[in-house]
Amino acid sequence: DAGVIQSPRHEVTEMGQEVTLRCKPISGHNSLFWYRQTMMRGLELLIYFNNNVPIDDSGMPEDRFSAKMPNASFSTLKIQPSEPRDSAVYFCASSLGLSIYEQYFGPGTRLTVT
Amino acid sequence: GENVEQHPSTLSVQEGDSAVIKCTYSDSASNYFPWYKQELGKRPQLIIDIRSNVGEKKDQRIAVTLNKTAKHFSLHITETQPEDSAVYFCAASKDSSASKIIFGSGTRLSIRP
Fold first, then answer.
1. Does B25 contact A at CB distance below 8 Å?
2. Which chain B residues are Cβ-neighbours of A98 within 8 angstroms?
3. How confident is the model at residue B8 (pLDDT cuts 50, 70, 90)?
4. How far apart, in whole angstroms, are the C-alpha atoms of residue A44 and residue A58?
5. Which residues of B touch A55 (CB under 8 A)?
6. Are A62 and A12 in contact (CB under 8 A)?
7. Least C-beta-crowded within 10 Å: which of A7, A24, B11, B60?
8. In sequence order, what are the residues at sequence separation of 6 or more whose Cβ sits closer than 8 angstroms to the Cβ of residue B21?
């Protein structure tokens, strides 16, 4: 398996633009997680899905952020409109289950909003 | 909800010496405690984990200990090497259909040559 796949790897956009980050989890994994990492705030869990259903989105910073998982092999994280403070590395991770299984992280998307 | 605190935030040790990173958790029902290592510019990766039915687990130079009574667990790295330089995250979770894993704030470990 290729592991968790994220695209794009780097994204530079202007404030106010819409940004869409994409993730393909490992085949057979039924849980998917979106994280944001910054120097100031560390690794933050934004939202997670189990069997394509969002379980907890309490980490989503505000309404500008939304996430979907239309099927078991694809998820998106959308920021609209983007702001400079959204600049961070966004990781997607997948696992066999929610809580007591190893999480496999993707390579991350480095987002820069100018 | 669960809260995980991790100390220290930065740690510098001489190559060959040991390094210890400590974490505490708040939810006594937590029963799974993984440790992730993140090298500079790379993704976090699991290096070792422990479940609440054991008090210690070892894998070569890495060991983790768990004290359920005190609700704390620690990562021990012996004979440190330059490739051990990274950020280490502890985490805690419990076996529940709705439980999520909670990460500590991370420890930046530097190995001095």
1. no
2. 93, 96-101
3. very high
4. 11
5. 98, 100
6. no
7. B60
8. B6, B7, B8, B11, B74, B75, B88, B90, B107, B109
User: Which residue pairs, CB below 8 angstroms and at least 24 apart, start in B63-71?
Assistant: B64/B33, B64/B35, B66/B33, B68/B28, B70/B24, B71/B24, B71/B25, B71/B26, B71/B28
B97 pLDDT tier (thresholds 50, 70, 90): low
pLDDT digits (tens, 9 = 90+) for A43-80: 999 999 999 999 989 899 889 999 999 999 999 999 99
Nearest-CA distance A97 → chain B (Å): 9
* Closest residue by Cα to residue A91 from A48, A37, A41, A51: A37
B52 touches chain A (CB under 8 A): no
Q: Do B98 and A103 touch (CB under 8 A)?
A: no
Round to whole Å and give the CA distance between A75 and A59.
17
For an interface test with B, the pick among A44, A90, A98 (most B C-beta atoms closer than 10 Å) comes out as A98
Is B24 within 8 Å of B91 (Cβ atoms)? no
Tokens representing B29?
A: 């029902």
Residues B10-59: pLDDT tens digits? Answer: 999 999 999 999 999 999 999 999 999 999 999 999 999 999 888 999 99
CA distance B52 to B46: 17
Tell me: the pLDDT tens digits for B57-71?
999 999 999 999 999
- β-pairing, B107-112 with B10-14? parallel
Round to whole Å and give the CA distance between B89 and B21: 9
